[in-house]
Write a structure and sequence with these properties.
Mean pLDDT: 89
Helix content: over 70%
Low-confidence stretches: 3-8
Number of domains: 1
Number of strands: 3
Strand order of the largest sheet: 1-2-3
Number of helices: 7
Largest sheet: 3 strands, antiparallel
Length: 173
């Protein structure tokens, strides 16, 4: 544990932290299984479609209309992208659910934590998708770095930060 995280975790037992680590490991194994099995990935197709529909609508709201064919978004200037399950908020929400579910807290606090956190992560992910399409159209040289480095790091930090804030809040009660 680094010195930076020690104050945030002060007073938490190793058993509490251990449960979270095991839960996150199981979530990772489950996500890996989904990635490896096409039938499992197919179950996420409705989520991909809803994410693409919402992204197209949001792009229209900001004056950047795209044509949408299923999960493919195409801008008139030639930029196109496809929304896969890895483009949805599914993965960060799975990790958040695992961390919150494994933490010793009242059931009501866990349910509320998951609901609020999931909504926030979906909204952040939608902002990510809209900004990526905007970058793909207006500053294509930035798209790759934003898509593969900046936004994934931000989603990880947002997920971990929300969970830490939630865990501290319920720990104080």
């Amino acid at each position: 544990m680094s010195a930076a995280t020690a104050p945030a975790l002060a007073g938490w037992s190793s058993g509490e932290a251990g449960r979270v680590v095991v839960a996150l490991g199981l979530a990772l194994a489950g996500l890996w299984a989904v990635e490896l099995h096409p039938a499992a990935r197919g179950m996420l197709a409705p989520l991909e479609l809803v994410t693409a529909q919402l992204t197209a609508a949001m792009l229209g709201w900001i004056g950047l209309p795209v044509a949408r064919e299923a999960t493919v978004l195409v801008h008139a200037e030639g930029f196109a992208c496809e929304i896969y399950h890895t483009c949805t908020a599914f993965t960060p929400v799975v990790f958040l659910v695992a961390a919150i579910a494994s933490w010793p807290a009242p059931r009501r606090a866990r349910i509320l934590g998951v609901l609020v956190g999931a909504v926030l992560l979906v909204l952040l992910n939608q902002a990510r998708l809209v900004s990526l399409v905007w970058a793909g159209v207006h500053v294509p040289h930035v798209f790759g770095v934003a898509h593969t480095m900046a936004w994934p790091a931000l989603l990880i930090l947002a997920t971990a930060g929300y969970w830490l804030a939630w865990a501290k809040a319920v720990h104080r009660r």
